[in-house]
Task: inverse folding
């Protein structure tokens, strides 16, 4: 029906999946993209003539909704930290219309019925699309493989023991081999626990001055090297989660050059923040800010620049938030005892816009690595506004300035070191299936 | 008390006058020396000089901090630092209370913040904290009104130890600037080394650190230029000791170590212990220091530890004076030392 049609008019459409970066109208209806029209004057008349609802987004950017391959919704088991309802509202506020939920819940997601539970809970309480990730090993214990084919059939989009490396190389090799059956990637928490040795921040100059036990970059490097070797040997699909070191980027680059099936993600915080934030020197905050404790840890500026370079040359496929909400109690304590992770869904885009402002990457590239690229890594039907696709989109006000206020977060996790930071670039509207799930009035 | 004990020392009058000068920033907390100025350090040392004269009296008690409550909250065992603060508080007339983590609600699972909030609610004006985790005093200092004094946090900082070390060096050698100071041993796990490096560098000493590669922060070896201090790093003890004015041996912190950092104590001693032969490489009148507690026969041989060049016991005495000065300055330095 004509009345169901909505025309977003006057905006700049950036849809890397179609190679579009142009003034264009997006017509949606029945939850889908019905039409992309270039030439706004003509379509404005069309809209009036056909009785379409017209939404003027002049000066705004329209893009596919962002796709997050890596977030923690904490449900079931840790509902004090987050629920699917609050986590997906946070996602919507950050411009994410599709999120993949990590399985390190309680119980862990390691059976088909667990996967089905997440899907049904998301259907009941979620406002964006939620895809469960199952564990690689039962209970994430690293002892025996989970029933990955069953979980894939139930809807798991990938498998990960996130938070723990699969320590046994033999088991990891088997998991990668088995990924040929499921067609789903094995998401690698690449961090050798022996080398981490209780480290709580990046092992480098800042840790040595602060007297905090360091987690060395080579803990990631040796794990990435091992698992790329195993992916090569098995032909399995490997996806490196939250790459954080320059050496890891090099290894992934070499792996791709050799035709090994390896993809990678990087978090917004590893792209913008460094370990100096823990000393408080860069950020002007007090030292030992537990909200800067993340895993893998914030690294050096050289690592950060290597990650950006990796993103630009395609070594790193996409950005994923690693949204890890925690309670005040989890963070209001000694640095060593603080739970690692930060609440990122709502600040990701604003933080990443600093890379655009710093001319490290274009807005179009940023949108690409937040939309179609992650969708392709996990084979998701998302990240595009091609005609017929779900009308999952964001309207971005690229010039709007705003200040991060954790008290206003939709997420239960207020654990962000970015509180008080000033950002440029605001997600004004988020739509899922053509329905507005988040809106900031002008 | 005699009339003499009531009379303020001239230097204390000076200290009181200095209080209104901009040198002492009116700090609420003593957390680390990384944001101190040389002038502030000098002022603490000058004030400590006066306090040391009080220590020399037959009856050491003054009512300067009468009515103040000072709690020592120690989450880690300690002899000298805790007692040093406790007597410093008592000599100045404050009420000193000791809280030991193992005999408090901490053992029932109470969080650090709740414990310190409780101490504040009870009326602690100053809380002296020792904690096994780096940064713990910072977490607390931002959330309570009491003054927090860092009595040692993890591997990170021990500012009052550094101040007493600086005081001891200045008292013995007349200056700190230009001296060659060598810090030996388990630098990686040493909060004393870190604070000493800040203090010594601020006052213009040339600092060398020396230890086995596994007990030195590795970036200090690979990229010393990136550090906030000018530091010489040696992995062999002989060149580190050559021409030193001050040699400071550090305790081998076996309780902080994970396995595999050194092959054996025997080999460590053979390569890194400060013994009489090695001490000869330093200047003939070089000071021998150690923050204690010592593992005699491990990082330092007993004859050196108790030899003519050793000022280790003096460090302990000076520690009381420095802590008296800090408690006095932290309390505003307003009360007359004789309580009038």
Result:
């Amino acid at each position: 029906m004509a009345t169901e049609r909505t025309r977003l008019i006057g905006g700049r459409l950036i849809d890397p999946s179609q190679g579009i970066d142009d003034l264009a109208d997006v017509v949606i209806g029945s939850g889908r993209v019905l039409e992309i029209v270039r030439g706004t004057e003509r379509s404005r008349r069309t809209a009036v003539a056909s009785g379409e609802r017209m939404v003027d987004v002049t000066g705004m950017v329209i893009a596919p909704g962002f796709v997050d391959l890596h977030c923690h919704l904490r449900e079931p088991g840790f509902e004090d930290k987050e629920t699917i309802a609050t986590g997906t509202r946070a996602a919507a506020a950050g411009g994410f219309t599709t999120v993949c939920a990590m399985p390190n819940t309680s119980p862990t997601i390691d059976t088909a019925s667990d996967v089905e539970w997440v899907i049904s809970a998301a259907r009941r309480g979620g406002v964006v699309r939620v895809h469960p990730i199952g564990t690689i090993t039962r209970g994430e214990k690293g002892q025996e493989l989970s029933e990955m084919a069953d979980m894939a059939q139930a809807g798991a989009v990938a498998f990960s023991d996130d938070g723990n490396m699969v320590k046994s190389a033999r088991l990891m090799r088997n998991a990668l081999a088995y990924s040929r059956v499921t067609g789903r990637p094995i998401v690698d928490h690449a961090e050798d626990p022996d080398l981490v040795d209780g480290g709580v921040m990046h092992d480098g100059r800042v840790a040595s001055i602060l007297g905090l036990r360091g987690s060395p970059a080579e803990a990631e490097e040796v794990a990435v090297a091992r698992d790329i070797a195993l992916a090569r040997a098995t032909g399995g699909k490997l996806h490196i989660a939250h790459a954080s070191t320059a050496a890891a980027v090099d290894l992934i680059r070499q792996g791709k050059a050799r035709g090994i099936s390896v993809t990678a993600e990087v978090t917004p915080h590893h792209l913008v923040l460094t370990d100096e934030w823990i000393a408080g020197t860069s950020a002007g905050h007090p030292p030992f800010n537990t909200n800067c404790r993340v895993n893998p840890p914030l690294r050096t500026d050289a690592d950060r620049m290597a990650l950006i370079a990796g993103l630009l040359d395609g070594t790193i496929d996409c950005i994923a938030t690693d949204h890890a909400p925690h309670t005040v109690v989890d963070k209001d304590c000694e640095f060593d005892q603080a739970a690692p992770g930060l609440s990122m869904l709502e600040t990701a885009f604003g933080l990443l816009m600093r890379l655009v402002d710093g001319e490290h990457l274009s807005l179009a590239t940023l949108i690409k690595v937040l939309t179609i690229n992650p969708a392709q890594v996990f084979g998701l039907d998302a990240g595009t506004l091609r005609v017929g696709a779900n009308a999952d989109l964001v309207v971005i006000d690229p010039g709007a300035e705003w200040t991060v206020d954790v008290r206003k977060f939709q997420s239960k996790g207020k654990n962000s070191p970015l509180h008080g930071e000033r950002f440029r670039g605001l997600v004004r509207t988020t739509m899922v299936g053509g329905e507005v799930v988040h809106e900031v009035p002008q | 008390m005699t009339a003499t004990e009531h009379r303020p020392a001239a230097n204390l009058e000076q200290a009181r006058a200095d209080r209104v000068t901009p040198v002492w920033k009116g700090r609420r907390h003593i957390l680390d020396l990384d944001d101190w100025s040389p002038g502030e350090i000098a002022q603490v040392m000058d004030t400590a000089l006066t306090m040391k004269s009080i220590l020399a009296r037959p009856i050491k008690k003054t009512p300067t901090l009468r009515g103040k409550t000072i709690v020592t909250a120690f989450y880690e065992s300690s002899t000298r630092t805790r007692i040093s603060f406790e007597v410093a508080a008592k000599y100045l007339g404050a009420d000193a209370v000791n809280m030991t983590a193992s005999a408090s609600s901490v053992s029932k699972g109470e969080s650090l913040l709740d414990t310190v909030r409780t101490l504040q609610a009870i009326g602690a004006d100053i809380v002296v904290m020792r904690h096994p985790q780096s940064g713990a005093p910072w977490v607390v200092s931002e959330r309570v009104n009491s003054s927090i004094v860092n009595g040692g946090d993890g591997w990170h900082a021990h500012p009052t130890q550094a101040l007493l070390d600086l005081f001891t060096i200045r008292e013995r050698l007349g200056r700190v600037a230009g001296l060659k100071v060598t810090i030996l041993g388990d630098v990686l796990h040493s909060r004393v080394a870190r604070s000493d490096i800040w203090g010594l560098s601020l006052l213009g000493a040339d600092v060398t650190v020396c230890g086995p590669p596994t007990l030195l922060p590795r970036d200090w070896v690979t990229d010393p230029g990136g550090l906030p201090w000018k530091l010489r790093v040696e992995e062999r003890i002989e060149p580190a000791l050559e021409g030193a004015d001050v040699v400071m041996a550090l305790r081998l912190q076996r309780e902080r170590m994970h396995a595999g950092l050194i092959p054996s104590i025997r080999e460590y001693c053979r390569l890194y212990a400060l013994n009489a032969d090695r001490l000869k490489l330093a200047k003939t009148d070089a000071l021998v220091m150690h923050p204690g507690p010592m593992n005699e026969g491990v990082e330092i041989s007993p004859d050196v530890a108790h030899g003519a060049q050793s000022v280790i016991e003096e460090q302990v005495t000076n520690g009381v004076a420095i802590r008296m000065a800090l408690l006095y300055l932290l309390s505003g330095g307003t009360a007359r030392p004789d309580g009038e």
Remarks:
- DSSP finds 14 helices and nine strands in chain B.
